[in-house]
Design brief:
about 325 residues; about 70% helix; single chain; 13 helices; mainly alpha
Length: about 325
Amino acid sequence: MSASPPKNIEKGTSLWKDAWLRLRRNKVALGSGVFLVIMVGLCFGLAWFTGHDPNQQSLTNKFAAPGDGHLLGTDQMGRDLFSRILFGGQISLLVGFVATAVAFVIGILYGAISGYVGGRLDALMMRIVDILYAIPFLVLVILLQEVLSSSAGDASEWLVKNWNFPEETTYRFANILPLFIAIGALGWLTLARITRSQVLSLKQQEFAQAAVSLGLKPMRILIRHIIPNTLGPAIVYVTLTIPSFIMYEATLSFLGLGIKAPNSSWGVLIKDGANYMETQPMLLILPGLFFTSTLFALNFLGDGLRDALDPQAAKD
């Protein structure tokens, strides 16, 4: 007669479940996450129900005070400021999320291949990263954006002529897309280094060596076994990268090198508000509040995720 298994067996938990439990105890990070959800809801949901076209001008209603259908008043062109802030937030947040997604994919794959293959290929790939690091980031973004803008303009004209795409929507998209790609395509360098260092350690561990001994192909080992174990530090880095990319877009727009009219972003609104900061300070303060509060929330959430996914904290 076999012995019955012990009743009081403690169930194991996964890394992600433990990380969630630690994150829930961080009230600042959790509150920041809720704030970001609300901000995304405002920019991508409520923006369409404000009752105002953000680009509709009314020169007889410039610098109107809040009220009379304008929740935050109007700007120097008589456009509703609240709708412009929300629609501008769409561009700023999309730059952060889309560019980060591009950088995430490139950085993870580049760093993982470099670390796993090793040898001369690893040395060559890392020297390329070092060369790109030596060039100022914003200079590279500006150059790549100019190259992509020319190609995007030609592509949009072809789509309008041959496929009857909506002209206004197509040209607006062609104006925005190059900036997304330019920032994301050059923002992966640090993530590639982080991933490479993780892979160099992981490929020597038992589970990776066992996969090799079973005869699995290197690409399958890399994708199914190695890369999933690098996602913890990568996710932490991504949450801290999003505000940096939003800041880059704001900087370029402030310099007149980013989003072009009729599109707008928080950076464009801050630039416009700076021209009237002495006479109409609210044009600068209001978009600045949306911009800075979102950056603070992203940084607080990133710090919380870093603490939650910290392997040392998992041992406590």
